[in-house]
């Protein structure tokens, strides 16, 4: 049992350290978002952006905080 966990963790570690892991995760997230936005869950999907988390809603957190971190990362890479 422990060996299976170690092997799985090694696969995950190798995936995270590979150069293509970021692109693969971004592609999977985009596909999941498109599928969800065009499914019966679309109303809940779009209303999630207006849920308040602290002083701002999720959309403001993404626009102000996460985008700034993203461009900082891209600029440093």
UniProtKB/TrEMBL annotation:
The yes or no answer to whether the keyword Membrane is present is yes
UniProt-listed GO biological process terms: regulation of pH; sodium ion transport
Query: What GO cellular component entries does it have?
Result: membrane
| Annotated transmembrane regions | 21-38, 58-76
Q: Which UniProt keywords apply?
A: Membrane, Transmembrane, Transmembrane helix
Q: Protein name, please?
A: Na(+)/H(+) antiporter nhaA 2
Which species is the source of this protein? Answer: human gut metagenome
